Design the sequence.
């Protein structure tokens, strides 16, 4: 076996050069991508539409469409205000932060803060970003998102804190009576169902108890939503 | 080069259509397998642009996925230099 006494090239500093490249990409990327959010989503949304079309059977879509149209007309009559029907392009678990992308944007009178409802009328989130023909919706279950609500039993006002994946956390004094299956309603005049109590954890030494609640909506299967201007 | 090109296609498709608990491990695996896979940072930005809550550029803007990708690339770089396989 031959010994190799060649000196290593210490002048090139390949590791430092690579680190510099990574940092440059990180900084430039942050700058470039912040300007191209709208165009990127516009380019990709047709692919999502094709995916929705391919993976949902045509018959089921037609049936649901007819049902939604009826429901929409009924809702518009009831509330006396305009709502826009939007198709969900991307939903959890495809999106990691409980965010939903819908195919409706500034052209349809959708604004930041517009309420997003299920076709059945229950609120599920708020629009937080409006792009050209798409909008991003933050669900109430987004991590650390706080929503005012009312615990139906004894009408106790609570703050629902999003825990991701359609789950919520609530912290309440240990004396407040709560049981599994209790309903948590929205604090607005509609009092819509937001979540159902699933688990209650309490330690002997704590003066508060932590309640885990689950949205009655399967956020992983959202296909259509209504958006109020 | 072909391995890189295939990885771009696979990762892009998985980001667009698969759940995050599939595409995140795919990107991590590509970062470990492919030498100096700097493209993972770009894919990280893409995930945050598509699905993130805010990408408005500011001093405080941090793309979580691209930052994580950078850390994994650096870690993979260091560990690959230290590791020796004797088959």
Sequence:
């Amino acid at each position: 076996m031959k010994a190799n006494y060649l000196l290593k090239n210490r002048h090139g500093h390949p590791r430092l050069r690579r680190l510099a490249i990574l940092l440059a990409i990180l900084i430039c990327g942050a700058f470039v991508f912040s300007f191209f959010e709208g165009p990127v989503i516009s380019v990709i949304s047709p692919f999502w539409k094709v995916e929705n079309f391919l993976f949902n059977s045509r018959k089921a879509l037609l049936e649901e469409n007819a049902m939604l149209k009826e429901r929409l007309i009924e809702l518009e009559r009831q509330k006396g205000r305009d709502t826009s029907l939007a198709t969900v392009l991307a939903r959890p678990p495809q999106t990691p932060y409980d965010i939903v992308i819908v195919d409706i944007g500034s052209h349809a009178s959708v604004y930041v803060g517009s309420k997003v409802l299920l076709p059945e009328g229950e609120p599920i989130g708020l629009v937080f970003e409006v792009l050209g023909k798409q909008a991003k919706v933050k669900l109430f279950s987004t991590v650390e998102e706080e929503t005012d609500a009312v615990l139906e039993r004894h009408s106790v006002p609570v703050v629902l804190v999003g825990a991701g994946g359609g789950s919520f956390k609530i912290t309440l004094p240990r004396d407040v009576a709560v049981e599994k299956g209790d309903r948590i309603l929205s604090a607005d005049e509609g009092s819509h169902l937001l979540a159902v109590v699933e688990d209650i954890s309490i330690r002997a030494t704590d003066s508060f108890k932590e309640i885990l609640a689950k949205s009655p909506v399967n956020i992983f299967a959202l296909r259509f939503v209504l958006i109020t201007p | 080069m072909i391995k890189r090109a295939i990885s771009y296609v696979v990762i892009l498709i998985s980001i667009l259509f698969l759940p995050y608990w599939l595409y995140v491990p795919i990107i991590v695996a590509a970062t470990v397998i492919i030498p100096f896979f700097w493209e993972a940072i770009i894919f990280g930005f893409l995930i945050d642009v598509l699905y993130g809550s805010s990408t408005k550029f500011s001093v405080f803007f941090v793309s979580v996925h691209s930052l994580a990708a950078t850390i994994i690339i650096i870690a993979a770089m260091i560990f690959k230099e230290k590791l020796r396989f004797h088959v």
Remarks:
- The interface with chain A takes residues 16-21, 24, 36, 38, 41-42, 45-57, 61-63, 66-67, 70, 73-74, 77, 81 of chain B (CB under 8 Å).
